[in-house]
Amino acid sequence: MNYESLYSDYSELIIKNNNIESDMFVKYNVKRGLRNTDGTGVLVGLTEVGDVHAYIMDENEKVPVEGRLRYRGIDIFDLVKGFQDEKRLGFEECVYLLLFGELPNKEELDKFSALLDSRRKLPRAFTEDMILKAPSRDIMNKLARAVLASYSYDSNPDDTSVENTLRQCIDLIARFPAMAAYGYQAKSHYHDGNSLFLHSPKEGASTAENILHMIRPDCSYTRSEVEILDLLLVLHAEHGGGNNSTFATRVVSSSGTDTYSAIAAAIGSLKGPKHGGANIKVMQMMENIKANVKNWSDEGEVSDYLIKILNKQANDGSGLIYGVGHAVYTLSDPRGIVLKKKAQELAKETGNEEEYNLFTLIEKLSPEVFARVKRSDKVVSANVDFYSGFVYKSLGIPHELYTPLFAISRIAGWSAHLLEEIINGGRIIRPAYKNVLGKVAYTPMKDR
Ligand SMILES: CC(=O)SCCNC(=O)CCNC(=O)[C@H](O)C(C)(C)COP(=O)(O)OP(=O)(O)OC[C@H]1O[C@@H](n2cnc3c(N)ncnc32)[C@H](O)[C@@H]1OP(=O)(O)O
Ligand SMILES: O=C([O-])CC(=O)C(=O)O
What we know:
3-stranded antiparallel sheet; 18 helices; single chain; Citrate Synthase, domain 1; binds acetyl coenzyme *A
């Protein structure tokens, strides 16, 4: 018996018996994707952590505006300018702000950074037992498993009090760099045949410094590289309560489960190619475009290829131009603007201007091609994932770590929302699904 062929037969059965006509969703006024008909999100919660602003309502009409992002009320541009003007790194300050709701003074920041520093090392034998064994080709998968495994190393894992949850979150924020770096080393060694090296976290170093220290064979990095990576970490740290991974954190934690379960769910969500996983997909798509478009500056040729992508005839057949479009942003994603500027600087420094110009051309052409092919008046622009891979690549960071770097940063936002959910949520999140099948009589075996 060839059991393998059963999967194909069963799949057909599943598709046949799970097909809900799209007019049913209209009939029962189902907000698909928890979205209203104008594309705005269904209001499901209140938060003080982050705010994403992308349109204004004028006489019930959605009017697109330039995107704004605020962490605890502070505009992301002001936050970035603040630490850059003072020639400081920003990520630890940003984590403090998100977790505790206010900016730290120097003494508070130093104390908090020292706390993170004291928690960076993974528990004894964790790396050998939980990371090197069963290495994964996908580092997000490894990271999720490392988070779930942390439960076994915690003497008080199920206590969901604010203090205990904060302790767990601080440990995860501090340890994500080592979990991701070692997960990558395991993949590189066991799957790709490269030499294995494991650098311990560097005492007194920031999150960004630690990442570069642990992923590079010789632990070397320059101040400018650290500043760029630190900036990326700040930009990815938070995005309101409704983004898929943060909402997953809130949904899962509302059942009263433990921190590790909620954060592992968030990692699984972020990995998806429509969410944080788009940063790798962008770079793969760019490789595909570079291989198939002869003249990278020919607008007609590039447009034609983008049309093929949208029509599912090119790239991975998904029909998506990765790094473009957003559930909330319209005219622009503020993070994309900062990253584009950084990408331009790096392209100049590294002599990679031809590729950068292709990125900018795709950014420019995508909205008009999208409008034409999808016959849509939705305003789309480059999102945070569009230029981030270009910047990571310029820093020599392996592509397997692009989405894990997003997680190393976003754990800050997830933690802040987890704590907010614990303090204010109280009710299990439990929406409704209408059953549209009705009653079916049981048929005895002999009559089937
Ligand atoms: C950190 C982040 O998560 S940022 C987002 C990263 N994701 C990507 O870059 C992937 C590409 N982009 C997308 O898939 C989408 O724009 C998303 C997932 C980000 C947002 O999706 P939605 O909010 O559902 O978009 P929206 O409802 O406005 O979509 C309308 C239509 O446009 C399509 N669409 C939206 N963006 C794109 C795109 N980049 N390429 C092709 N089609 C797109 C949708 O699939 C949908 O098509 P359909 O009506 O045929 O089903
Ligand atoms: O808000 C969203 O839907 C996705 C996003 O950009 C993020 O989480 O950073």
